[in-house]
Amino acid sequence: MPITEIEGRRLTVTRLDKVLYPATGTTKGEVLHYYAQTAGAMLAHLYDRPVSFLRYPDGPDGETFFTKNVPPGTPAWVKTVDLTRRSGKTGRQVVLQDTASLMWAANLVVELHTPQWRKDEPGVADRLVLDLDPGAPATIVDCCAVAGWLRERLSADGLHVYAKTSGSKGLHLLVPIEPTPSDEVTAYAKGIAVEAEHELHEQVVHRMTKALRPGKVFIDFSQNSAAKTTATPYTVRARAEPTVSTPVTWDEIDGCADPADLHFLIGDIAERRERYGDLLGPLINLNRAKRLPRAKR
């Protein structure tokens, strides 16, 4: 098995020629190359956040499973943290702090998911997220229309709003905030989602009930819960193609007329980063964090 050295760490990589995405012929080696190229930007968003893995070792058409626990065989040099779970039990999770650790995780073939809080303050969020999920026949184009309304509404509360594709069907809106208990963030986000449904009742639903969602955009505010996670910026998704949860500009959102306009694969990201830099950089700039208004009662 090939062994490579990254930042002084010896890492065994396996089955680099295995085709993970038959639709595009993308191999595991190409996916690892993508993560190596993108490590600088991605690690900034992973830093100090416990990671959950959606593993798909045989590609998106094979078995997939979600885990928060430290995988068996994890090298001693990969940082981990003990956390108390909602059940009251203590669990140990990985924290990806450097390129070597990121490449170790990538070799497992995973989607990376992180909470809105950091390891030193569990349950105290420093960002708010709204997940816009279209119910067919609605598409990401409909999400973009709703995102414009949400941006204006959140801006009226003095908040800065940034966006990325989910890498699946929809959009994630992200807001840097001063550290705030997750339950307060969830309450505020729910209030915004309810307000959006009231104002855009033909386009939006805030409840998860599947029967309500066809043709509408579901605003999932629940990912602000301390126990929930969201796809990390730049992670590759376990979809038919190697799509990426990609930061996008508001001009791109405003101009989106076709789902293909915001459909990005691993081969698209290097050029976008060269052109735009990290569009989500302000999320890790404390100067952009604002106090969250209290939820309306």
UniProtKB/TrEMBL annotation:
Q: What is its EC number?
A: 6.5.1.1
Q: Which Pfam families match?
A: LigD_Prim-Pol (PF21686)
Q: Does the keyword Ligase apply?
A: yes
The main enzyme category here is ligase
- Which GO molecular function annotations are given, in alphabetical order? DNA ligase (ATP) activity
Give the source species: Streptomyces ochraceiscleroticus
* Classification lineage: Bacteria, Bacillati, Actinomycetota, Actinomycetes, Kitasatosporales
Which parts of the sequence belong to the DNA ligase D polymerase domain?
27-279
- Mind telling me what this protein is named? Non-homologous end-joining DNA ligase
Where on the tree of life does the source sit, at the highest rank?
Bacteria
What are the UniProt keywords, alphabetically?
Ligase
Q: Kindly indicate whether the keyword Ligase belongs to this entry.
A: yes
UniProt-listed CDD domains: MtLigD_Pol_like (cd04863)
